[in-house]
C-alpha cells in the first residue's frame, strides 16, 4: 500500500464523521476497486476472490491454438486484486493463475516462452509473499505440486521452478 500524503491526511482530519462517511459512500459508488476493497474488509472474502478468479479464467480461456492468453489483462487483474486483498488471498489468486497457465501449456504444447517466464515470475512473487507473511505451511504443498507438474513439461521448466522453490524453502525439503 502506498503512503498517504500529509496534505490528504490533514484534509481528512478536518472532516466531520458524517462528511467522511459521505465521501466514502461516494467513492464506493464510483469505483469497483473501492467497492471490492471494502467488501474484502467485511467478509466473506471468498466472493471477491471468486470474482477475480472468474476474470482471470475468462482472460486465460479465450484462446485458440495459434494465440496466447490475454496475459496483459490477467496481469492487470492480479495487480488490481493486490491493491485490495490480504496477502494470503493474493497468493491464492496467483496460484490459481499459475495453474491455469500450466493447463494451457498442457493443452496447447508449444506455447511462447513468455508463458513460461510469466509462470516463473509469478511463482517467485507468490513465494516471496508467503515467506514475508510466514504462511509457508498453508501453501507449501501447492507450491510443491506446481513444481511436480512443471517437471512434466520439460526438464528446464521444472528445474527453474524447483530452483525458485528451494531458494525460498531452504530449510524444508520437498516430499515425493
How would you describe this structure to a colleague?
The protein is mainly alpha-helical and 176 residues long. 77% of the residues lie in helices and 0% in strands. It contains 9 helices and no strands. It has helices spanning 6-14, 17-30, 32-42, 45-61, 71-84, 87-108, 113-132, 136-150, 155-168. The longest helix is centred in the middle third of the chain and has 22 residues, at 87-108. The radius of gyration is 19 Å and the shape is elongated. Mean pLDDT is 83; it is low at 171-176.
For this entry, what is the oligomeric state of its chains? single chain
Unreliable residue runs: 171-176
Beta-strand portion reads under 5%
End-to-end distance, in Å?
A: 38 Å
The whole-number mean of residue pLDDT values reads: 83
Number of helices: 9
**Overall geometry:** elongated
What about the largest sheet? none
Q: How much helix, percentage-wise, in residues?
A: over 70%
- Rg, Cα atoms, Å: 19 Å
Count every beta strand, where a strand is a DSSP E run of 2 or more residues: 0
Which class do the helix and strand fractions yield? Answer: mainly alpha
Reading the helices and strands in chain order gives HHHHHHHHH
Helix and strand topology:
Layout: H1 6-14, H2 17-30, H3 32-42, H4 45-61, H5 71-84, H6 87-108, H7 113-132, H8 136-150, H9 155-168
Helix pairs in contact: 2-3, 3-5, 4-5, 4-6, 5-6, 6-7, 6-8, 7-9, 8-9
Short description, anyone?
The protein has helices at residues 6-14, 17-30, 32-42, 45-61, 71-84, 87-108, 113-132, 136-150, 155-168.
Amino acid at each position: 500500500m502506498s503512503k498517504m500524503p500529509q496534505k490528504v491526511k490533514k484534509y481528512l482530519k478536518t472532516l466531520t464523521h458524517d462528511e467522511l462517511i459521505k465521501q466514502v459512500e461516494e467513492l464506493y459508488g464510483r469505483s469497483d476497486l473501492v467497492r471490492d476493497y471494502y467488501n474484502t474488509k467485511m467478509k466473506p472474502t471468498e466472493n471477491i476472490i471468486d470474482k477475480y478468479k472468474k476474470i482471470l479464467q475468462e482472460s486465460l480461456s479465450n484462446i485458440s491454438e495459434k494465440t496466447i492468453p490475454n496475459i496483459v489483462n490477467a496481469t492487470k487483474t492480479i495487480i488490481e486484486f493486490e491493491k485490495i486483498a490480504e496477502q494470503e488471498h493474493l497468493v491464492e489468486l496467483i496460484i490459481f493463475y499459475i495453474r491455469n497457465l500450466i493447463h494451457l501449456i498442457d493443452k496447447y504444447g508449444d506455447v511462447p516462452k513468455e508463458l513460461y517466464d510469466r509462470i516463473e515470475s509469478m511463482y517467485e512473487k507468490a513465494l516471496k509473499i508467503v515467506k514475508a507473511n510466514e504462511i509457508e505451511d498453508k501453501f507449501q504443498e501447492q507450491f510443491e505440486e506446481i513444481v511436480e507438474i512443471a517437471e512434466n513439461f520439460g526438464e528446464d521448466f521444472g528445474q527453474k521452478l524447483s530452483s525458485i522453490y528451494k531458494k525460498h524453502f531452504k530449510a524444508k525439503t520437498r516430499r515425493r
